[in-house]
UniProtKB/TrEMBL annotation:
Belongs to the LysR transcriptional regulatory family. InterPro entries: LysR-type_TF_proteobact-type, LysR_HTH_N, LysR_subst-bd, WH-like_DNA-bd_sf, WH_DNA-bd_sf. Keywords: DNA-binding, Transcription, Transcription regulation. It comes from the Bacteria. CDD domains: PBP2_CrgA_like. Residues 1-59 form the HTH lysR-type domain. This is LysR family transcriptional regulator.
Amino acid sequence: MDRIEAIRSFIEVASCGSFTQAAERLGLNRIRISRHIQEVEDWLQSRLLHRTTRQVSLTEAGRAALPLCEQLLNQAARLESEIRPATSQLQGSIRLASPVGLGQHWLYDLVETFLQRHPQVHIHLQLADDDADLVDERVDVALRFSQQPAAQLIARRLMQVPTFVCAAPSYLRQCGEPQQPQQLSSHNCLTHLDSQSWTFSQQDQPLEVAVRGNFSANEMGVLTRATVQGLGISLLPADLAQPHIEAGRLRILLQDFPCRHAWLWAVYLSRSYQQPLVRTFIDFAAEQWQGGISVKLPPSA
């Protein structure tokens, strides 16, 4: 039997808890997946899965075998990638999820360069500011802004992204400019749906300020546009704010109180990293973005 292929089927079934979903993800039929599981169980002489009409779950032996099978598959992928002739071209597809703003700017340039280097690769890009479900949506890699990703995911930190409190000159002329973070409570602050407070640094100590306003959204591009139009004050990532800052459409506020930077991570499930293509893409992103995002501030900012 092809033990590598059979082990891959076992890992996929364990990941999604379904023979049918595993078959769909691997591009195989359900009968073949069942045969693979039986082959692995015969090889290890242990029952690895509890099977009922409603669900599939790991036995005690299955829980013990799963991390060892993942290690074995990782080693096989590493062997393939290191021994394969350097002249062989990278092939395959990646399902990639990203926040909308990042996908329209920095990520697009990265993907374009990657595809130029690897023309036989296909990237399926899914843009949304809500976190994608890596299992249900069959995502290989998701890019997320976070201080620390969820513990159940494998994560690699890619770059630090500065964030700025910004407002349009028209808003500041009408409402004035806050000089202290606490003064934001008297301003119309435009917020992301998941954030009702902003964190600053004051004398090397964190300072959390509650903010509120008459407009919130789950997409940073919309908040950026609303800020440029003078609707209120917002906390924006550097990649979205930079062109407006340089053009004078936005001004950075409270520069004596730096905002906490955002970290961009690549998160993935263990089964995804077993693919040489996924590892190559993550390594490429880390290399290209290792310097982070630099922002050129105008002299008047």
